Amino acid sequence: MPGQTNSPTRPVPSRPASWRTIEVVRAIWGAALLIGPATVLQQVHGVRADSRSIAVTRVLGARHLTQAALSGIRPTPAVLALGVWVDTVHAGTALTFAAADHARARAAITDAAVAGGWAAAGFRDLARGRASRPTRERLRDQLARAALRHLPAGPALLSRCTAR
Q1: Are 131 and 35 a contacting pair, CB within 8 Å?
Q2: CA spacing 20 to 30 A to 73: which of 56, 80, 100, 125?
Q3: Per-residue tens of pLDDT for the chain, all 164 residues
Q4: DSSP character for 135?
Q5: What phi, psi does 73 have (nearest 5°)?
Q6: Angle at alpha carbon of residue 30, lines to 22 and 139, rounded to 5°
Q7: Entry pTM
Q8: Contact 90/48 with Cβ under 8 angstroms?
């Protein structure tokens, strides 16, 4: 029949991909860290780029790209909560590094501020119920919930996922 949208011969269109803008920014930042670590270290952070700092910067770039890929499109509450946990740990680690290496303290504090901002944005989205409700059980959701059950403060974040 004309006008019938749920015809068995016509597929129902799926929801369009919904990217979190902050994850697009994260992906760009991760790519910059991975592709041009020396430039980022020297131009953005004002530190000398040695082989160790270049390696650490590339690892951080890969981490950001991975997180952007996993939580960029319609993140569920559990995926968003795990991202908050990872960003919070990243910020804390960077602050510890700042205290231990005074020559790179400015870079580490800047890194901690950025990671803390991402954690705060993720927590805000989680608290406001802006995560996507899963239409089906995906592997990333199962892994996020399993990890949160065993991480320090993870169960508290996981409870935020089911509170709404």
Answers
A1: no
A2: 56
A3: 455 455 455 444 444 446 788 889 999 999 999 999 999 988 887 888 889 889 999 999 999 999 999 887 788 899 999 999 999 999 999 999 999 988 888 888 988 999 999 999 999 988 888 787 777 778 888 999 999 999 999 999 988 887 65
A4: S
A5: -100, 120
A6: 70
A7: 0.81
A8: no
Nearest CA to 144 out of 84, 63, 64, 65 is that of 84
Q: How far apart are CA 46 and CA 48, in angstroms?
A: 7
User: Which tokens hold the place of 17?
Assistant: 């991909």
Q: Token pair for residue 33?
A: 């860290």
Residue type, 108: A
CA angle 29, 32, 38 (to 5 degrees): 130
Asked if 64 and 136 touch (Cβ cutoff 8 Å), the reply is: no
123 CB-near residues (< 8 Å, 6+ apart): 84
How much is the pLDDT for 16? 41
User: DSSP assignment, residue 74?
Assistant: S
* Nearest residue to 47 via CA among 105, 3, 89: 105
Q: 3-state DSSP call for residue 153? A: coil
Q: Which of 45, 61, 162 is nearest to 69 (CA)?
A: 61
